[in-house]
Design goal:
elongated; four-stranded antiparallel beta sheet; alpha+beta; about 190 residues; two-stranded antiparallel sheet; 5 helices
Length: about 190
């Protein structure tokens, strides 16, 4: 796992004069938004019939949403017809399938500890995007030596492009496991 503090030099390139703690805080917030918007932290869990449907969630993370659920034969189940999902990440299977596989997303919780371990893939592949997100917020701070609203907008656009790219990667990875459905046209 990677430390977000390793990205502080990238934030300083974009926003000179910022304090380490301020950069660390904004990197945490940018990482949270990146994970939430990109849906990149996908997880899979199998639930047997009669088992508790609580989804396992990493420490310092929260449940976001269920993408889809497959039965034992690989058929996609329909939400509210075949299964229910609570806001805390508990899946209740209504169908008679003996085993289901749940595909879901998690994201970092709001208050991250200073020694938080971020996902290696995200930090290594989209380090610039996360630093752009942190810099865009820092550059909007009023009455500082580094305040620059036009640069803030620029870095915000780059941050948005970064998490959109990660979203595409995450969706393509999920689509490989999702069965194709035939469509009926009238």
């Amino acid at each position: 796992m990677a430390q977000l503090s390793s990205l502080i030099p990238l934030v300083r390139e974009r926003c000179g004069g910022v304090l380490d703690q301020m950069a660390r805080d904004q990197l945490g917030r940018a990482y949270q938004k990146f994970c939430y918007e990109s849906c990149f932290l996908a997880r899979t869990q199998e639930i047997e019939k009669g088992q508790s449907g609580e989804l396992s969630i990493d420490s310092d993370h929260v449940f976001v949403s269920v993408d889809f659920v497959l039965d034992a034969n690989g058929n996609e189940l329909k939400s509210s017809d075949d299964y229910l999902v609570s806001s805390n990440g508990t899946v209740t299977v209504i169908s008679t399938s003996p085993k289901v596989r749940v595909f879901y997303h998690i994201a970092p919780q709001f208050l991250l500890p200073n020694d938080f371990d971020a996902d290696n893939t995200i930090v290594n592949r989209w380090a610039d995007a996360i630093a752009d997100g942190a810099a865009s917020t820092l550059l909007m701070m009023p009455n500082t030596a580094w305040t620059d609203l036009s640069k803030s907008d620029y870095f915000k656009r780059r941050f948005t492009d970064g998490y959109r790219d990660a979203f595409q990667v995450a969706i393509e990875a999920l689509d490989e496991q999702r069965p194709s459905q035939t469509r009926v046209f009238y």
